Amino acid sequence: MTGASSCDIKQLIRSIVFETFDNIPTRLLYTETGTVCNRDAQLSHFEASPQYSRLLSLASASDGEPGEAEIRKEVSKYFQYATLSHRWGSGEPLLRDVEGTSVYDLDGTDGLGKVQEFCIHAFGRGFLWAWSDTCCIDKDSSAELQEAIGSMFSWYRWSSLTLVHLSDVSEAGSLADSMWFKRGWTLQELLASPIVLFYMQDWSLFMNHDVANHKTDPAVLAELQKATGIAEQHLTNFYPGMDDARSRLQWASGRRTTRPEDIAYSLFGIFKVHLPVLYGESAENALGRLLAEIISQSGDVSVLDW
């Protein structure tokens, strides 16, 4: 293969990687080392990977070069990632706490231990990449926080697995007893994630059901319906948008957020709306903006009585 052709293949691979980046979080934990990686680091890891070497070796082989479909398959597989869904507790590590080091090398807080366990379990299930809303967002940057809130639903939707940690459920407990079902942000995380596994306080699987997806387990689905009041078809195959908007608001009516405004912001993805995030406004104002957008798009004024 000529040098020019080799450069063309490298450029095609890189362009497909950047297309993939459009659908995944800006920062990810590299589970093998426990480090937080930005786009440059993610690209560097890929270009040092066996998958990248294989694509280049196919390009240099005498029988031709990898097609675009094959490149997309390899890139997509490499960047599969797991997401964490949880209740925030004490000592959650922020980006500034872990940047430039490995989460595996740190100690001292329950929150840090949770991120470590999350990375270990994600890596054990074959994922090189993982995302947590604690340390993978620069919350000191209002622009990045705005982008993250606007993208979070799709990040959970595009994840290959969501690990839910129920810090208050033991082997004798039930899902419905967990405060996880009373928090605002976890509603969109449950609905958006196509594949979910529930882990109890000690990081053992709920009901000890070693299945690929708890959303397909009849016993767990029954517990989920009991805990949320959401019908099975929405739990297993949810689509964001304005359909039956009043019911969607009712799903959130018994949930709470630490910051009052977040009760509205946590619903943006569920309704597929894009509105400014204005921390400091009242919950009433944030909900008012959301309801006005819902009525504008759907014409359903019954949402005012949710």
TrEMBL record:
Signal sequence segment: none
Residue stretches making up the Heterokaryon incompatibility domain: 81-173
UniProt-listed InterPro entries: HET (IPR010730)
Domain of life, source organism: Eukaryota
Family annotation (PANTHER family): HET DOMAIN-CONTAINING PROTEIN
Name this polypeptide is given: Heterokaryon incompatibility domain-containing protein
Organism (species): Pisolithus tinctorius Marx 270
